[in-house]
Amino acid sequence: MKLTVWTYEGPPHVGAMRVATGMTNLHYVLHAPQGDTYADLLFTMIERRNHRPPVTYTTFQARDLGSDTANLFKTACQDAYERFKPEAILVGASCTAELIQDDPGGMAENMGLEVPVIALELPSYQRKENYGADETFFQLVRALARPVEKTAQITCNLIGPTALGFRHRDDIDELSGLLSDMGVSVNVVAPMGSTPSDIKRLGAAHFNVLMYPETGETAARWMERDLGLPYTKVVPIGVGATRDFLNEVSQITGLSPVVDDTRLRLPWYSASVDSTYLTGKRVFIFGDGTHAMTAARIARDEMGFEVVGIGCYNREMARPVRALAKSFGLEALITDDYLEVERCIENLSPEMILGTQMERHIGKRLGIPCAVISAPVHVQDFPSRYSPQMGFEGANVIFDTWVHPLVMGLEEHLLHMFRDDFEFNDEAGPSHHGGHAAQRAPSVDSVDLEPTKGLELQSQSLEMTWLSDAEKELKKIPFFVRGKARRNTETYALTQGVKKISVDTLYEAKAHYAR
Amino acid sequence: MLKSNPTSCSNAPILKERGQREVFCGLTSIIWLHRKMQDAFFLVVGSRTCAHLLQSAAGVMIFAEPRFGTAILEETDLAGLADAQQELDREVERLLSRRPDIRQLFLVGSCPSEVIKLDLAKAAQRLSQLYAPSVRVLNFTGSGIETTFTQGEDECLASMVPVLNESGQKQLLVIGALPDVVEDQMRNLLSAMGINDVAVLPATSAKHAVTVGKNTIFVATQPFLGETHSALERRGARHLPAPFPFGAEGTTAWLNVIATEFGISNERFEQVVSAPRARARKAISQASEVLSGKSVFFFPDSQLEIPLARFLVAECGMTAIEIGAPFIHKGLVGPDLDLIPEGPVISEGQDVDLQLDRVLKARPDLTVCGLGLANPLEAKGLTTKWAIELVFTPVHFYEQAGDLAGLFSRPLRRRAALSREAAA
Ligand code: SF4
Fold first, then answer.
1. Is the torsion defined by CA of B337, B343, B344, B349 positive or negative?
2. How many CB pairs under 8 A join A and B?
3. Could you tell me the fold of the domain covering B1-20+164-424?
4. A 15-54 residues with CB < 8 A to B
5. Which of A56, A88, A238, B407 has the fewest Cβ atoms surrounding its Cβ within 10 A?
6. What SS3 string covers B324-356?
7. Is the CB of residue B341 less than 8 Å from the CB of residue B359?
8. Crossing angle of the two packed helices A129-144 and A213-226, in degrees rounded to 10
9. How many alpha carbons fall within 13 Å on the CB side of residue A390?
């Protein structure tokens, strides 16, 4: 038993729903109590889908238990088959139905339906949403895909996008464009946008592009082994990763990896002088494994940030995330406990968070700017404009998204210059945030005036005190660099064995860390 | 004053359906209960699904640690039951040591905890003894196999009734969680009439000891409190059936039933209600301009459907095509049913696919439904109102009457505004 307040992932049957809802002509019959129908609103409200997820819930009640939950399932399954006339049916159990052991798979298989029935066994008490999506897609592919004749042209499948995915809709377009520039057309995109008939012809492609390992890797591995389809290992998020990806496709296909990149702006925007202020910004990165890892590379190599922490909530990706963190000289945070992530951020007191909607809330509370890089999704993560994460346009979008919560370069210098001006006080946040900034600023300030819990703890553990003059001097430093100054000074004091921090210590530390 | 109709819906046949239901489970009630009861913590014993439901229903939450959480059952808990009880003790101990502000702890049952027959009543008793007197531990079910949406509040309040202190004093007990500002308005109206001995269940904090006894007269502000109703009758209290206090006329009728019971003169009553009633009528008439003459269709959701349909029909000039409710407790909604003229289909339970067929055939001007159905129906050209907002927004009594009408008129005004744009 584990107490959970907020969760990063839903149960595994929600992952199965993400697969089913992304597809058409497929229906999912889920043995589940009525309350589980809440999951529909994730798709209709957050993603603004204009149709109901293709899911029939049996909605059994207490009075049905032990008598006819099994019949209820059969009726629901038969009705759904007749009403929706799908090309294939997924059947499975939610957490509660798993306990009553009606065996929906076995029952559905014996009903003599004229379409393929794919039974899902998703262990609700062990696994989570991403696993559910990955396993469901794998079962579909295994049941339906067979070796077929290859297309005459070089084609690939785009594997992994689902309903309710973080920018999946636009990533598909961006990658299709890039690949077409190289001379590769798309055979099937799956699961999102496909039908069961499309799944049958996956084997006609020459290779697979694995867009999201979280939801497509098991199927990609199976297709490599059973259909002879190699798959790409690089996830093309960021400029460097996109170029590596194009090279990887080139190696698989023999086509030239050179494509038109005239609309790519991230490298120049990053090099232009206004971005000087980004140098060495201390960022904390958290999300699903794939997005966290790609973000780390962009943050360090393309934005010039200093990565001070990295982690993911999906244990399936723990190994590669740990390895990457190690190469950054860090220890990865692998947890799905929101409070643990919050503690970690408090202790590191980064200048920026690249995280999920959960970290955005942590950031709000701690007064740390945050840009969202990963699911779990929120209605804001489905903007009406085109905003992919992958490819060159994705890199442009990422530059804008990450810089947006920060104070602009020139603006930062002005704040320095005029910090004693009464109209230009610390509470003036980034000017492009309008009224919002005014709300945010007080919390920024209160965090800094009374050091955050994490910092307090840290100071205690270092057995260090700030003399009042030094504390006063610290407050003169603009709020957006104050946290860093405090931290640097304490670290410096520790290395020097200084227990009482004076104004001199503060400036010695400043000189020490000057760069 | 509202007149009951000789050919009303109260004797109309009820269409009972049993198919797929598209409704929340009772756990959802925790979202408003924990805001109302400020020293209570709601600990759901359930699965990841339960935690995800709460999170999804709550939308984006900005408080770090809300006063609810889910103890997620794991494989090990499912193996042996004795284990699960110990695990629960451990989680409760951790929780209470981290949150010393908590005075009431509710252990909330879910489908998984009920299917494995985890005895939360036993756990609540044991933990109550352990943490008395600083924390009171109670249990109730919010599971989807036992409860629908607002029934979670009903179960919660019913769980408190047996532990209320006994009192023989004549008093009015009002049941149902209302936003504080609305509760204050209600208390002011009652005290202006001279009724001062008013208790409200649930109280905002455990300090306010609510009592009950033979001379307690209770009235409900929410129609979904069937279990609480029975529990109070078992304690000897007497129920005052009344239309629910929605709109100018509903509020007046509700107050009038109480005034009559407490022997308040007509004159005094009129003195108290005339000004706010006039205000409410004016506000409704403004908001209901676009509602008048339009048709409405209710999908089952919160059990508020019948009283709200009464409001829309009797006070806003709408006609009802179908009024669906998850359950119909005639002892509670009877007075409202009496006031709805015969005509609409009254349905109980649900078969969502069949109901969708009916709504698409009837094409009502306004469809009141859950969040899972709203956008799909909008995409088919129907105008919808999310039912959940009617539960989360202050809508009771005079001062909210205009807002209540506005909740229904806004989707219609919006559609009109957008079609003008498209036509231009
Ligand atoms: S229906 Fe049951 S399993 Fe589903 S969220 Fe509600 S209590 Fe949990």
1. positive
2. 186
3. Rossmann fold (3.40.50)
4. 33-42, 44-45, 48-52
5. B407
6. EECCCCHHHHHHHHHCCECCCEEEEEECHHHHH
7. no
8. 30
9. 27
* Chain B residue with the nearest C-alpha to that of A59: B20
Do the domains B26-147 and B1-20+164-424 match in fold? Answer: yes
Q: How many Cβ atoms are within 10 Å of B194's Cβ, its own excluded?
A: 14
Amino acid at the residue B211: T
Q: Strand B171-175's sheet: what is its strand order? A: B198-201, B171-175, B216-220, B238-239
Kindly report the average pLDDT of chain B as a whole number.
93
Residue positions counted in chain A = 515
pLDDT computed for residue A436 by the predictor: 41
Check if B120 contacts A (Cβ < 8 Å): no
Residue B12's pLDDT is what?
87
Out of A4, A65, A342, name the one closest to residue B70 (CB). Answer: A4
Query: Which residues, other chains included, contact A175 with Cβ-Cβ below 8 Å and sequence gap of 6+?
Result: A158, A209, A211, A236, A390, A391
Pocket of ligand 1 (CB under 6 A): A 33, 35-36, 95-96; B 25, 27, 46-47, 49-50, 53, 110-112, 143-144
pLDDT of residue A439: 38
Fold of B26-147: Rossmann fold (3.40.50)
Q: Where are the domains of chain B?
A: 1-20+164-424, 26-147
Give chain A's residues under pLDDT 70: 407-462, 479-480, 515
CB contact (8 A) between residue A60 and residue B71 = no
| Residue B325, strand partner residues | B348
Length of chain B: 424
pTM score, whole prediction: 0.90
Residues 6+ apart with CB under 8 A from B235: B161, B162, B164, B166, B212, B213, B216
From A274, A336, A337, A445, active-site residue: A274
Q: State the nearest Cα–Cα gap between A508 and chain B, in angstroms.
A: 38
Integer Cα distance of B343 and B309 in angstroms: 12
CA distance A287 to B104: 35
| Residue corresponding to tokens 């589940």 | A32
Q: For residues B183 and B84, what is the distance between their CA atoms, to the nearest angstrom?
A: 39
Helix (H) or strand (E) holding A240: helix A239-253
Q: Kindly provide the ipTM of the predicted complex, given to two decimals.
A: 0.93
Is the CB of B48 less than 8 angstroms away from the CB of A10? yes
pLDDT digits (tens, 9 = 90+) for B189-244: 999 999 999 999 999 998 888 999 999 999 999 999 999 999 999 999 999 999 99
Edge to edge, the sheet with strand A155-159 lists: A185-190, A155-159, A207-210
User: Residues 317-336, chain A: which have Cβ within 8 Å of B?
Assistant: none
Q: How close is the Cα of B145 to the center of ligand 1, in Å?
A: 8
Q: Which residues pair with B109 in a beta bridge?
A: B45, B141
Asked whether A86 and A115 are in contact (CB, 8 A), the reply is yes
